[in-house]
Structure formats: structure tokens, C-alpha cells
Design a protein that fits this description.
six-stranded mixed sheet; alpha/beta; 11 helices; elongated
Length: about 290
């Protein structure tokens, strides 16, 4: 099993047949068919179900397809690292983020303006997914809310953000700040792990909160807020991803929830030149302003 065979196999699966895959790869259909057949013989398993015009993966083929995608991405990342190691920052800067706010910081945006040869390859995910991206080599740098507990992951603390409220003016009524008392009788859209603190704080202020939505995804809650289902309580780093003109963002006072935003990267492997330049930039301006 070699890299050519894996790239051929991925192309056939994604194009749904040999003819389209051959055109995509600029090889003959007979060459492509021969390589896939050799791969099946080597693995001693059927990878594709074929008819006269189409090809679709078997269950084993789907497993190989997912693995092959990761292998090819890691191989490309390695090639880019080696090519760019001795030169100025160029190529792909592979970043995974759970918080977009560091990426849109003015000095970070200026970094991309002054390095047009760098392509930002951005992936979204939660902390667990970002750790997987870093460990597999799919991403070099991550921005996380909180801590990844791995000995080979280095953390750079960027900011500590408190909670803000995102909602329409039907709920916020022109307020610029909100207190705990203002949450009474409001339908709340909250993070699952924040429920105990919010509930206790509200009860301490003499009322039981109304939880209209409890979820693990702040973007979902912001969308619900936009459609008038309630007010979303989210960290500052997430609130400022709310771009809709229909939404307002106000400071929430009196809820003792604090979320750290950290930059993370592996300290047991060599970063690409683009990643080194980016890490040094972030370190030079940390902590980031809101």
C-alpha cells in the first residue's frame, strides 16, 4: 500500500467512479483501475462495489477512506514543513479553533496581510477534537477554551473572558449591561456545564431560572437567540462571533463564570516556519485584548 494508491482510492470514492477520478488525477482509467485492484489484492478485501459507470465503497472501503484522508493530509503537512523549513514563512498555517476571537484580533489579521504567501487552513472543533487534530498532525496550532491535559501540549494563556448576553432587543430592551436580577422570567439558552452556577446564583437572588435550551454548542444557542427563543449566555470570545444585525451583545454582571482562551501547540515536534512565526506573534501580544 503506497501513497499513490491511497490518493487514487480517495479520488474514486469522492468522485463516485473511475472515469471522473481519472480525469481529476490526470491518469488513464486503466492505470487507476489497476492500482485499485492491486490495493484490494494486497489487503485481500473488497474495497469498492462497481458497476458499469459507478463505484461506491464497501464498509471496509469507508474505513480505509477515512484513514487515507488523514494519512494524505499528514503527508502533505510534512512535505510543506520540509519545503519551508529554511525559508521565510510560506505555505499553509493549519489552525484549529474553539474560539475565533484570537484570529480576528487586529494584530493577527495584520500578520496575514503582511504574509500573503501564508494560507490559513482553519478548522473548528471542541477541545477534544482540537487535541486530536494536534496529535495527528492535521493542525499545528489550536485555540481552546480551557486546558488540554497532555504533557506534550504547550499552553499560552491569551485571555480570560467573562459572560455576556446575546439576544434581540425584544428581550434586552436597549440595555448595555444586565445583572442577575434581569434574568428573572427570561428564557435562558445556556452551556450545559454552566447550569449549576447559573441556577445557584439565580436562586441566591430569589428566583428559579428558566432554561429554554441547555446545549454544548454556543453557536446553536446564538442562532436560537436570533430567532427569538431566548437570550444566550456565552463567553465574550463566543459572543463576538454573533454577526447578525438583529442581535445585541451586553455585559452580564454577577455570574461567576470565567473562561480562559489558550493557544496550544505540540512541544515535542518541529513546527513549520509559518507556525513558528505565528506562535511568536501571539506570544508577543499575549494577553490579547478583548
Amino acid at each position: 500500500m503506497n501513497m499513490n494508491q491511497l490518493s487514487y482510492f480517495v479520488a474514486v470514492v469522492e468522485e463516485g467512479g473511475f472515469n471522473a477520478a481519472a480525469k481529476r488525477l490526470f491518469v488513464s482509467q486503466s492505470t487507476l483501475s489497476y492500482q485499485i485492484k492491486e490495493l484490494e489484492l494486497e489487503l485481500n478485501i473488497l474495497l469498492l462495489l462497481r458497476d458499469s459507470r459507478h463505484a461506491r465503497p464497501t464498509e471496509a472501503g469507508l474505513i480505509l477512506y477515512r484513514r487515507a484522508k488523514h494519512i494524505l493530509e499528514i503527508a502533505q503537512t510534512t512535505e510543506n514543513e520540509l519545503k519551508s523549513f529554511m525559508f521565510s514563512p510560506i505555505g499553509a498555517l493549519k489552525v484549529a479553533t474553539a474560539a475565533i476571537s484570537p484570529i480576528i484580533h487586529p494584530k493577527v489579521l495584520n500578520f496575514f496581510h503582511t504574509h500573503p504567501s501564508i494560507t490559513l487552513d482553519l478548522r473548528n472543533g471542541d477541545n477534544e477534537q482540537i487535541e486530536e487534530f494536534l496529535m495527528s498532525g492535521i493542525s499545528e496550532i489550536g485555540f481552546v477554551n480551557g486546558e488540554i491535559k497532555s504533557s506534550c501540549i504547550e499552553h499560552v494563556c491569551l485571555s480570560s473572558s467573562y459572560m455576556e448576553v446575546v439576544g434581540t432587543d425584544d428581550f434586552l430592551h436597549g440595555r448595555t449591561t444586565m445583572t442577575v436580577e434581569n434574568l428573572q422570567d427570561m428564557p435562558l439558552l445556556v452551556q450545559r456545564e454552566d447550569v449549576p452556577v447559573i441556577e445557584k446564583t439565580c436562586i441566591d437572588h430569589g428566583f428559579k431560572p428558566i432554561f429554554a435550551c441547555i446545549s454544548d454548542d454556543s453557536k446553536q444557542r446564538i442562532i436560537f437567540a436570533e430567532h427569538g427563543l431566548g437570550i444566550a449566555i456565552v463567553p465574550q470570545s463566543k459572543a463576538h462571533e454573533a454577526l447578525s444585525s438583529n442581535l445585541n451583545i451586553v455585559e452580564l454582571k454577577g455570574i461567576d463564570i470565567q473562561v480562559n482562551v489558550d493557544m496550544v501547540f505540540r512541544n515535542d515536534k518541529t513546527l513549520s516556519q509559518a507556525a513558528i512565526a505565528f506562535v511568536n506573534l501571539i506570544k508577543s501580544i499575549a494577553p490579547l485584548d478583548k
